[in-house]
Amino acid sequence: MTFNELKDRGEELLLELIANAHQESFGLEFKQKEDPRTSNLSKNDRRNLGAALSASSNADGGVIIFGVGTKKDEGIDVAVEALPIADIGRFEASITSLIGEYLRPENPSIATLAIPSTNENGAGYLAIQIGKSEMRPHMSMAPDHQKYFRRGVDSTRAMDHSEIRDMMMAPREARLSVSLESEGFRVETQLSHQVIDAARQMAARKISARLS
Question: Rounded distance, CA 188 to CA 119, Å?
């Protein structure tokens, strides 16, 4: 399931996921609002939002869907119930305003999608697409948080100090565009920082060998 599929099929796709007891994964997380009868966010709703934003931004991104109840099946959360949220437009506006406030540093690759319910007037679901970030690690600044989270295969969990340190020390993803042209043919590619570093080290060894 992708964010674009949600755009195209909306509630129909969500109900299909629920009927099939679709599992959560690294890239998909279902969230149940504490009280779906109101668009106001409780403290727990805010903490859930902050943790989910941090966790997916510190992984490879993903999709979070508010308005779907879950239960454990062999240790993994599966979708079991549609719980559309009242006044989904207001709920989306609240979430959008909190995204920048609850995530530090900000992840610019985040989009929201309100999905209307066909059974409850004005109610619906909210999908949040989180893109892969080059600014990791991201901290949740939700109430009582100031923590870093990470998405696992079956849950979201707080990161320990060693994980945070390793993520801070990890090289940023840098890419170099290379264009080669010969006899009318043109080839373009991108090199990751690992390839660039390897080439630089190889060149340094060759220069050293010539000087010795």
Answer: 51
**Within 10 Å of residue 74's Cβ, how many Cβ atoms?**
7
Q: Are 86 and 122 in contact (CB under 8 A)?
A: yes
Helix (H, G, I), strand (E, B) or coil at 107: coil
Instruction: Give the model's confidence band at 1: pLDDT under 50 very low, under 70 low, under 90 confident, else very high.
Output: confident
CB 23 within 8 A of CB 76: yes
Distance CA 14, CA 3 (A): 12
Neighbours of 71 (CB within 10 A): 11
Per-residue pLDDT tens digits for 87-142: 999 999 999 999 999 999 999 999 999 999 999 999 999 999 999 999 999 999 99
